[in-house]
Structures are given as C-alpha cells and as structure tokens.
Amino acid sequence: MKIAMVGAGYVGLVSGVCFSDFGHTVVCVEKDAGKLAKLHDGQVPIYEPGLDLLMEKNMADGRLSFTGDLREALVDADACFIAVGTPTRRGDGHADLSYVLESAREIAEAMPEDLVVVIKSTVPVGTNRKVDATIRQHRPGVRFHMASNPEFLREGVAIADFTHPDRVVVGLESEHANTVLNAIYRPITSRQTPLLVSDPETAELIKYAANSFLAMKITFINEVANLCERVGGDVQAVAHGIGLDSRIGERFLNAGPGYGGSCFPKDTKAFAQTGQDVGARQSLVEATIRSNDQRKSDMADKIVQACHGSVLGKKIAVMGVTFKPETDDMRDAPSLTIIPALQAAGAEVVACDPQAGQEARDLLAGVGWCEGPYEAAKGCDAVVILTEWNQFRGLNLGELTSGMRGTTFIDLRNLYEADEMRAAGLDYWPVGKRPTTA
Fold first, then answer.
1. 28, β-bridge pairs
2. What is the pLDDT of residue 178?
3. Does the annotation mark 263 as catalytic?
4. Domain 2-197 classified CATH 3.90.230.10?
5. Which residue in the list 18, 28, 80, 263 is annotated as catalytic?
6. Architecture of domain 295-429
7. Which helix (H) or strand (E) holds 182?
8. Could you read off the pLDDT of 34-59 as tens digits, one per residue?
9. 18-25: Cβ within 8 A, 24+ apart
10. What are phi and psi of 205, to 5 degrees?
11. What is the CATH number of domain 208-290?
C-alpha cells in the first residue's frame, strides 16, 4: 500500500515511520520548512526512544520519504491519513479543527479517485462528517472514502504502542475503506490484535472516552492520596489493593502531581464541551478537569509546607520538568504551574531534566538549569522529584545530601522509601503517605 501522511508531528511521524516498517510506502507531508529540512537529513524533531533508528532504516530502504508537496504525496496513494494538531480552541474548550479542515480542502484539490481519507488526529464526534462535507464541497463528483482511525500512543513508548496495540479502532461506512485499512493493518491483526470496526461517530467517541476514563483514574487516586495523608493511610498500598481487583486494574493508579501532556488535558476538555453542547453533560469529566488543575497548585503548596511553611529566600532543586519521562513534551506539564508558584513565593529554583530543551527554558523563565541532580542539589534547601525519569530513581543519597544546605526531600512520584531517606538524614515528604523526619 502507498500511504500519504499529512502532518509529521508526533502522531504523524510515529505512525508514518511504523507504517513504513510494516512494508508500506509512506510519504509524510510537512509544511514547516525547517522541520522538513531536518527530516530530509534524517533528523527526528521530537524525542521518542527508538524513533531515530527506525526512521533511518526505512528511509535507507526507500519506503519512507518526506515532502512539502501534498499533490506529490498523493500520486497513486491508496490512503491519506490526516495527522495534524487539534489543540484546545481558545475561549470555549473545543478542539480546534482548523488544521484538519484545511487539510481536507487541500486533499480535495489533489486526491486521486477512490482515495481513502483517514482521520488519525484526535477529533470530537462529528468531525468525519465535516471533513466528508468539506471534500465534497471542494471536489464534487470525485469518489472517495472516509474513515476514522484514532491513535492510542503513549509518549515514551509510542513505537511499542503502535506495533503491539491493545486494539485497532476504525470507523467507516465503505467496504473499500474496510478493505484498504485491513490491508494496511494486516501486520498487526495477523498477530490476533483485535480490529474493532464501527461507524465513524463511535470510533471518535471511543478515543475521547478512553482518555477521559484514564484521566479520571489518575485523578481519583490523587484524591485518595489526599485522604491518606489526612488519616494515615498509604496510597501505594491502597492502589495495589484496589488494583488487584480485575474490574479495576493497577495501571494509572500512581499518585502524583497531576496529569499533563498533549492528550489528557485537551481531550477531557473537548469531551466535556461536546457533552455540554448536546445536553449530555459529562459531569465526572468536568470534575476531573477541575480537580487536576487544583492538584498542580496543591503540590506547590505541599512543597511550601515541607519547607516549614515558607520558601522565601530558599533554593529549591527540581528534578524533572517534562510532563512524563522519556519525552521532551512540556505541554500542560505540572512543572509549568508548580515552579512559577514557588518563584512567586520567593524561592530560587534550579532544575535538571534529561530532555528539557529550549522550550522548557523559554516556558520556565528565571530557572537555573543544571546538568544533573547532584549539581542541582548543591547548596539547595530542598529537593523535589517532579518527573520520574529513571536517572532519579537510584540517586546516591549520600552524595546528594553532602552538597545540600537543607535536609528536605519532596518526592511527588513516590520513588523512595521512608527508611532509606531517614538513613540518609533527610526529611521525607512523599505523596499519599505521612511525612517522616530524619
């Protein structure tokens, strides 16, 4: 199969590279000239483990290429995937579909007969119908086929998620689209991975409902963590206890500073807004959004509390600023709320992160950047674990404390145990457990 992938951002690039590794011919279309030049040179503009090697391999084998010309990419194409951004629209919480509809207009002008147009971007229910109408308006009389194929990629493990998914979801109403998508995904479905075929509206809802449910699960355990701190429970033991119930499961029950990233924040907002618009409010999702926003502010307050009620004039070392490990993504990262709140309260903040680049430096003004955790901890009054990078899981606590001015260690990811903190002479503040003093 020949596939055109419109958009070489996170979803488009990972999908395009993985499709090419399945043996398909893939042409990724990217409008950004700077990004396109990097891609031509084999440079990956995002950080995703393993993506650079897989891209290099398939470019060398001639199955993967990049262009700024959509018309060129659509020559003899069997399918065209739309994988452009759908950020939250300012003012109303809806997903901004302007990039999707612009892509639809451009595809209409250049598409061959019988092309299968597949929406890979995360879009609210009804978007497939809008794209279908847009294409028909701009190219009446040309036969094409619409399909929805939402992605379920987790940053940091996206290649594994794409090549070994729990399921593949497609929404369509055309037998030809069904045939083409079955052929595209045969390398996955041949391993008995379920291919769930539905109408387009159901496929669109599956994506939003899945992300909203996971966001609720994270938020639930964070609220349980608050309760544990008040009554003396251990949130990790609670999570394990309820997670052993097969109806619940243990995944996404790690208490922390709140969810962030490119998916959960915007998808929960769009899902809630859709419910409000059609008179079917998603009250649990709305509450999840409010609670998660509050969670990030509460974590800043927790750090202040751990520092004896004030961070004025104190130096705080923050370990990790990206929203999760194994990514350079700063979108809606808890650090963007927590660090400015500490600065506003009078703290000097230094930070280290294995992949935080210029974007993090631009977003977090006034932060001192260090090469690693031991440099960051020198002369600081408190250390905060904010992102659970592997580099922060096995710190030499003796070396860390030898350079510190204070003895406060705030672990917002529960990476350590109270006994080892006490042995290192540190006052330990975990999440969902009682703090302990050295």
1. 5, 66
2. 97
3. yes
4. no
5. 263
6. 3-Layer(aba) Sandwich (3.40)
7. helix 175-184
8. 999 999 999 999 999 999 999 999 99
9. 18/54, 18/159, 18/162, 18/163, 19/184, 20/58, 20/63, 20/64, 21/54, 21/57, 21/58, 21/63, 21/163, 22/184, 22/187, 22/188, 23/63, 23/187, 24/63, 24/184, 25/1, 25/63
10. -70, -35
11. 1.10.1040.10
